User: What shape does this take?
Amino acid sequence: MISILMYGRRFFPYYTNTVVTGLDTDGKGCIFAFDPVGSMTKQLYACEGSAMPLILPILDAYVSLPAKILQVLSHIYLFIYLFIRFLVKTHQIQVKLNVQKKKQLK
Assistant: This one.
């Protein structure tokens, strides 16, 4: 509805940036941001209004940074996994895990 309203006024638009939040079909929270022309983008986080210059750095620090760190760690994990798999296949190395049982203290 917001997209249609804003697109209908695209030549003399309302100068607003709208944020709509809700639940998707899986029941997870989602955020959609609209620009003044009416195009919609799904975002990880969003804020608009007069407090945006104050809130956005906080969101960048606490929401975006952990997501980027997790993405980098997942790439490192994948690289290590693929490298070990390559070594095992090309050099026919056998990988054995030594598991030691710890004695329980009584």
Summary: The mean pLDDT is 76. Strands lie at 18-23, 29-34, 40-43. DSSP finds two helices and three strands in the chain. The two ends are 68 Å apart (CA to CA).
